[in-house]
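Sat 14:20. Reprocessing the chain from the morning session after the first attempt stalled halfway. Input below, unchanged.
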Amino acid sequence: MGSLAAVERPHAVMIPYPAQGHITPMLKLAKLLHTRGFHVTFVNNEFNHRRLLRSQSADKLRGLPAFRFAAIADGLPPSDREATQDTAALSYSTMTTCLPRLKELIMKLNEEAGTSGGALSPVTCVVADGTMCFALVAARELGLRCATFWAPSACGFMGYCYYKGLVDRGLFPLKEEAQLTNGYLDTIINWIPSMPKDLRLRDLPSFVRTTDPDDIMFNFFIHETTAMSQASAVIINTFDELDAPLLDAMSKFLPPIYTVGPLHLTVRNNVLEDSPLLSIGSNLWKEQDAPLLWLDDQPPRSVVYVNFGSITVMSNEHLLEFAWGLANSGYTFLWNVRPDLVKGHDNAVLPPEFSAATEGRSMLSTWCPQEKVLEHEAVGVFLTHSGWNTRRWKASAAVCRWFAGPSSQSSRPTAGTSAPSGASGWRLGKR
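Finished this time. Tokens:
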């Protein structure tokens, strides 16, 4: 009887886009499915799997009997850098090389299931990031259903879905680089369903800002959003009350849509506190505990927490300018400075004069447990790149105020376009 029950248990292969902001929400979704009785195989690319082995203990990545990790090659040269991979190269490589590797992995899992004596179920479905649509082809060729999971904002997704409309209307590519600064980006885009009627071209994800008609990322998103119509279902990390108009508009051209967000709260409310699932982490950088201990010694609502996410990069000049802005503000701050924050460098370095000027009111970290930081009573302001993950965390944390700093591509359209009626403050963060 036990063997039969195990065989009948659904088995989901889950594959996130290989970046921190996609891995984290996909892992939360995987934990939810596991609590609902699924076997889970969580598939990273080999580069990030090695990073997880360095940042987490190997025991945690062994998973649980019905929750396992696996890895496939992404087609890029091997590397052990503690840095986010080049987005354009990674996107093109996964799109063009990962299909046979994923199929091979699924077939291997099914072979293992056949000899496991019922301990492992055959793969019954695939859940793929909305930008890993080669998995749709793999699932179809293997006779499996595939749901796509959109990790960034619903309004960002809608913007990507209408990239082709920019081409059809002659708005893309830019005719000349002067259009980046001459007001052309203020062109009103009022024809995308459910989006604000004063939406501007500059408010769309920044891949539109090029004169190259063959831009890898622009065309990558056209390819991926078009392919999503072939999915069995689309899962979005939002909730109906926040994005009802957008969800209604999407339902006109997408498969059935399921909202599961905000995932960090959904997991908290559905995974037991003593569950071993909670010990399985997703951070690609090793978390430091010192910031939390430092926060314990700060007065309530006295600290500015600064974190520009996992992808945003800046020049060294920009880093120094920002650092001295923090120093001259006079505020107490906790600043998450990734080693790869400076473009082209593996180690962001601040001058000793900065340390001297902020002594006694600053804490620098390479990576910290962000959800715990945002929930800490000492944090009163959150200065962020406005990525969708951080917006969701902020919305449910007790942070008094937040401000937008340097942004990543996916965060740009979240301002003013994904808010309940009257929530105009969402727009103020970006304009």
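The longest helix spans residues 87-114.
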